[in-house]
Design goal:
Elements: H1 12-40, E1 47-49, E2 58-59, E3 62-66, H2 69-78, E4 81-86, E5 89-94, H3 96-99, E6 102-107, E7 110-115, H4 117-131, E8 137-141, E9 147-151, E10 158-159, H5 161-174, E11 178-181, H6 187-190, E12 193-195, H7 200-203, E13 209-214, E14 219-224, E15 227-233, E16 248-251, E17 254-256, E18 259-263, E19 266-270, E20 273-277, E21 280-284, H8 295-299, E22 305-307, H9 309-318, E23 324-327
Parallel strand pairs: 4-11, 13-23, 21-22
Antiparallel strand pairs: 1-3, 2-3, 4-5, 6-7, 8-9, 10-12, 13-14, 14-15, 16-23, 17-20, 18-19, 20-21
Helix pairs in contact: 4-5
Length: 328
Amino acid sequence: MAVVKRAGKISPKRNNIMTTILIISISMLIISGAAVVLILHSTDPTVFYSGSSRHGKSEGSVPVYVESEEEKLTRELSEISIELIFDNNTEKLTGKSILSLVDIRKDGDTCDYSVNQQKVMEYAESLAKKYDTFVPQYTFTSSDGEEVSLNNIGIGWLFDKDHASMMITNYLKEKRSVKLVLTDKSDESNQWWLRIASDYEAVRKRGKCYAEVSIDSQYMWLYKDGKVVFQSPVVTGNPNVGNDTPKGAFVIQEKVSPATLYGEGWEREISYWMGFNYDVGFHDAEWQESFGGDQYLENGSHGCVNLPVYAAEELYKYCYVYMPVYVY
């Protein structure tokens, strides 16, 4: 015979307690759902909902937090990113470093900012100190084994602190993020330098390729990666008539083939021109009867470095704009 076990009766008191718990649970779920709906329907990223109100205002039963003008401005400035790339090194301004360059002013509920020019200039000066490779005197060991010190006319890079300060100030005023390569010799990057030379890192290693001219020896050498790849006798300027070839550390400023030389009452057609000091440069000179020795004392040039045609052609193949040239 089957036995059926019946549930016991629930007392009225217990039934009331359970009903109350059920009602409270449903009410909490309804309130939570309303809060979620309010959060999901908020389209303003500066407003969010929490258990307390910043300004004592609320929508219905849910408190509202509103980002202050100062907090909004601070956030916008912190999001600016200024990246300046020097070959393999990157200098980056963002977040706290950006905020250190501005002064935030608060007037009641409004807020504004200004760029601190002194701090920006100090930052530009720190970049110059770190990345300048230009020095007034350039010292090197010549092919003759002598230590030679030259006035530096064009070797090395010299950072333009004033231009850097102006550009960084403009970026901050515009709240503009930028990423710039400053050593690629583009028109934009060149504006950041007062002087530029050969490849940025190569300057520290005397250049990938450079030319050396000894006036006393009337001879020149071309180095590539530390080795002599070409050499030739030369004829430099005639010192007896005031046409000395200038001494110093220069760079190739231009190369042209063919070209025409102009002087007072004369002109000559040449095949190769490699200027390194405005109107002074290397070029072929087929009119010279010989090269080297004392030829320059009587039949010297107007200041240029004269070369046999074959030598000028060879030098032209190797040289490039910004290649270092040492004349001593």
